[in-house]
């Protein structure tokens, strides 16, 4: 079974996931833009189990549809590494950049296209949603 490790910038916080990527996507919502300091968040979904090493600070945000997302980031360097959605326990979403792997698979989905910066261009095969499709 394949394993991947994602970590924060300083290496204090990491997550090891097992198995294949369930899906990849980008989110252009304003909350993800503010959270990442970028114009979108790039995420990869993995099934449980996963192993976390180090200490994480948590921030819980309620999404537009009422879901609660628990973001984990390093209290030392501030890197956002992964998050979970309450009620969706068998899955974890990992920040693709935390893998530090330029060969990581491209996004399959793009949500909150209504907030996408006009100059951001994604591959044609990406499935696009104006807002959250859930």
Automatic annotation (TrEMBL):
Entry annotated with the keyword Transcription: no
Residue intervals of the CENP-V/GFA domain: 4-113
The reply to whether Lyase figures as a keyword in the UniProt entry is: yes
Q: Which PROSITE patterns match?
A: CENP_V_GFA
Q: What keywords were assigned to this record? A: Lyase, Metal-binding, Zinc
Please indicate which superkingdom the organism of origin belongs to: Bacteria
Report the GO molecular function annotations. carbon-sulfur lyase activity; metal ion binding
User: Which family does this protein fall into?
Assistant: Belongs to the Gfa family.
What is the protein's name according to its record? GFA family protein
